[in-house]
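chain below, 399 aa
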Amino acid sequence: MRENLDLQVAAARVERYLGQLSTTRAQFFPQVGYGLEASRNRSTEVGVTPMPAGTDPWSKLYQGSISASWQIDLFGRVRRQSEAAQAQVFSSEQGRRGTIISVVASVAGGYVTLRALDRKLEIARATAANYAETRRIFELRFKGGVVSQTEVASIESQYQQAKAAVPLLEQQVAAQENLLSVLLGRVPGPIERGLALDALKVPQIPPGLPASLLERRPDVLQAEQNLVAANAEVGVAKSLYFPSISLTGALGSTSAALSDFLSGPAAVAMIAAQVAGPIFTFGNIEGQVRSAEAAKTEAVANYRLAVLEALRDTNDALTGTEKLATSLEAQVARVKAPARLCATVAPEVRQRGVELYRRALCRERTVFGRADHRGQRVRSSDPAGGGLSRAGRGVGRCA
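prediction:
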């Protein structure tokens, strides 16, 4: 799972927002820096004030300083920016959690689908072998004058149809293996098999789960944090109506001779306070406030939609899992009885005549079809296909 590229993208997105949060929070503190400069300059000898004769037009200047600036967050602009950045970090983290759950569900569901395709391929090969045996017997019967050419042609058509299904299923198995390889961050190739389809256990969802578990869903939490960020951005936009206050100071040294650079007479200092604010912006700030409030309204609607989708998704998943389990039990019972009957009757009817044998073969083919249908039923209740994955996502965990 570590090699999954979707997870790497989600993790990188979290790191990006963490970097933005660090940048925003740095505005709470003074920004300290330094500067060094050494220069050699030539002055004009024919300026407005002529240079005295014999004076060297070249001069040197050495400067160095340490400066500090601090913007006082009197009206909460930086605080609201920090709040929005923090919410974006939380939102991206929930997005990462959602990606993890989605990838886990996709891998689990993809594996179940692969094992179901393996089962279908096994059934298709057995069915083709069954038709091949049927064709052989009917050809022998035709040579003995027991059956007609039409019956032999009918069996040949059914055999070729069953045989044609095998390479198609083999192609589907290879495509599913490639899909799983990409989900695992690997080069497309074969997938190692584990438990067979019939041995896979469907996890049970305990009854009576409280609706408050929906608060754990990553999509709901992500929508909530997006709303928090949008609300903070409204505060950032409104803070533009108020003035910004900043303090600036510097301490350094300036000298024409390097030997005097750090001497007392070469010292320089500066301290300043600045207040700047808007007077006429001709709708600039109003437009930003309006845009931020619209984004907040959108975030509220998205949050409500996420909650409703979570309720619907979870209810559909729990109902579907329950009904599919009931249907699967009935399907298993339907398959077992004909399978036992055909296993005991088929050898007997082969002794009684071709018509009874043909009916027995038909019953055997029906058993294969029902077994294939059972594989589809199990696959329909797998973690990716619906039931348990959506139920697991409904409470914010992997199924």
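The chain has one domain: 5-27+62-394. The mean pLDDT is 82.
thats it, cya
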